[in-house]
Design goal:
Blueprint: E1 4-6, H1 9-21, E2 30-35, E3 50-56, H2 59-69, E4 74-77, E5 90-96, H3 105-115, E6 116-127, H4 132-139, H5 142-152, H6 176-185, E7 189-196, H7 204-220, E8 231-237, E9 260-261
Parallel strand pairs: 1-7, 2-3, 2-5, 3-4, 5-6
Antiparallel strand pairs: 4-9, 6-8, 7-8
Length: 263
């Protein structure tokens, strides 16, 4: 199954909202974990009743979510590779543009699965490490990324504490083939897969230039590095357990746990 092409951030947000809303149930608020939550929640869920927990290693980014965005019910400071959360606690686990920044991304993938309830949904958004964009991102040093975001995309805070861009690693699982292999090996179902090749820049010249570079890399690589898409969105389903339970019975972290912070 080839990924379905999305042509804008708006379309991507609508797709994400659709799949999260499909996870809704009548057993209380939907429990959502934002794994690597960054500075804002980008999905409009309308009137859906839900609780949103954010986990991030960047404490300053979490402070922004608590004091400025105020869109999290709970925050936990921790490394997604090692943080301890309850098994099968969340109905939806959302991980957006995080795995490419982790040296050990497959361990994070295993944790995302472990934290999701049986029958729950895992939403993974990544740049494809086997795309022309992914290849160039890996090839260029981090300071180039910082300068690009700061001076081309116009984000003056780029590179400062609490703000991206972050260093990239692109472990093998961070690719279309890598996620497919991981899901097949771990009994997971990919309900849907979407791709996008659009540029985040509103500058048409910059967009055309980035597309030209991507196709040049595609040609020079003899087609091994795709220019047809840059980013991927996976909707992954964890199988229901044999008893067919729908909700997690896991308990929350104790109120005095050092990892827990409540706004």
């Amino acid at each position: 199954m080839q990924p379905l092409q999305l042509d804008s951030w708006r379309a991507k947000r609508q797709v994400l909202a659709k799949h999260i809303l499909e996870s809704a149930h009548d057993h209380g608020p939907l429990r959502i974990l934002e794994a690597g939550c960054g500075s804002r929640w980008n999905v409009d869920l309308g009137d859906l009743e839900y609780t949103l927990t954010g986990v991030d290693l960047d404490e300053k980014a979490l402070d922004m979510r608590i004091n400025e965005r105020r869109d999290l019910q709970e925050t936990i400071v921790g490394d997604l590779r090692t943080v301890i959360l309850d098994d099968a606690r969340y109905d939806v686990v959302y991980c957006c543009n995080v795995l490419e920044h982790v040296d050990g991304a497959e361990q994070v993938m295993h944790n995302l699965v472990r934290w999701t309830r049986p029958g729950g949904t895992i939403l993974v958004l990544i740049p494809d490490g086997r795309s022309a964009k992914g290849f160039l991102t890996k090839l260029l040093p981090h300071w180039v990324h910082v300068l690009f975001v700061r001076h081309v995309q116009g984000l003056a805070s780029a590179g400062k504490t609490g703000f991206g861009p972050y260093r990239t690693y692109f472990d093998p699982v961070v690719s279309l083939a890598g996620v497919r292999r991981f899901c097949a090996a771990n009994g997971l179902t990919i309900d849907a897969c979407y791709s996008s090749a659009y540029s985040q820049s509103a500058n048409r010249i910059l967009t055309a230039l980035s597309q030209a570079v991507a196709w040049t890399v595609h040609i020079v690589s003899f087609g091994r590095l795709t220019a047809r898409h840059a980013d991927l969105t996976f909707v992954i389903r964890k199988p229901a357990d044999p008893a067919g339970r729908h909700r997690s019975t896991g308990q929350a972290l104790p109120p005095d746990d050092p990892q827990r912070r409540t706004p």
